[in-house]
Amino acid sequence: MGALLLGLLAALPASAEKKVETVFVKVGPTPLTAGRSADRDKAIVLIHGLSLHPFSSDKALRARLRVWQQGGGPIAKKLGEQADVYALAYGQNASIDKIADDPSLVRYLDRLKKEGYREIILIAHSAGGLIARHLVEDHPDLGVTRVIQVCAPNGGSGWASLKAATTAQMEFMTSLTRSFRLEALKQRETKKIPDSVEFVCVVGSCRVAGDGIVVAKSQWTLDLQAQGIPAHPLKMTHWDAMKNPKTVELLQKLVREPQPRWDAKKVLQSLKTIVP
Q1: Per-residue pLDDT band at 83 (split at 50, 70, 90)
Q2: How many whole angstroms separate alpha carbon 120 and alpha carbon 265?
Q3: Please, what is the average pLDDT of the chain?
Q4: DSSP H or E segment with residue 22
Q5: Distances from the Cα of 216 to the Cαs of 154, 168, 237, in angstroms?
Q6: Are β-strands 119-125 and 146-150 bridged in parallel, bridged antiparallel, or unpaired?
């Protein structure tokens, strides 16, 4: 895997009955060194999304890195040219909200802040994008300077309503449904992306309505548009988003270049091409 283990624990989320396992590892650059590399002041954290487990409850409980997060892969290798790269994995036996509330996630990011990184960037695919969003909204002083969501179901996904997961993973799946996410947005309407955090949505658009799993208007929701959050469409499916060479190229650009908020005119212009 080419990863340096920094933390593995079963941590209590908001519900005392359930434990969510989390793993936080350093995956780049190669060769790996413990802690902050002497010549790097930028840390990138890769956060995965849903991994459906229709038959194995045990797999739903385990925190395991996805292939695209691992050291030696295109993303870790390319981003490792300009930053230290870390990966976060988590068990999927609780809701998105409870996982984002887990104190271990705050500890991992606080550790990076104490290491002295000037920039801490979260790159999060799918459901991971919701976790990243909750983290910066709930902990604006955590030190995160940028969030890049890729195909994130901010407004939920119709596919999440399918009863295709094991009982252990059902709470996680339910928290990705449209009804759940829309209710969550209502309950969190006072929560905003902090001004100190640059926030970007990469919108998968392989089909007219979105990436095949999450429609475009759910990836770049009205509340994000109202905050001037930039959005960049990219032709890719939800399944190959983090394996697509074009995604890697775009991520390099979004990490390298400033991502200021858009004004209302820019948002309106982009709506015509991003949200059909």
Answers
A1: very high
A2: 29
A3: 91
A4: strand 20-28
A5: 10, 29, 12
A6: parallel
Please state, in angstroms and rounded to a whole number, the distance separating the CA atoms of residues 24 and 120: 15
- DSSP for residue 177: S
Q: In what order do the strands lie in the sheet with 4-11?
A: 4-11, 20-28, 84-90, 42-47, 119-125, 146-150, 198-204, 231-234
Single out the residue of 199, 93, 201, 214 nearest to residue 155, CA to CA.
Answer: 214
Using CB atoms within 10 A of its CB, is residue 95 exposed (0-12), middle (13-18) or buried (19+)? buried
Residues 49/126, Cβ–Cβ less than 8 Å: yes
Residues 221, 226, 232: CA angle, nearest 5 degrees: 55
What mean pLDDT comes out for the span 200-209? 83
CATH 1.25.40.10 fits domain 4-274: no
pTM, 2 dp: 0.93
Q: Is 258 helix (H, G, I), strand (E, B) or coil?
A: coil
pLDDT > 70: what percent of the chain? 91
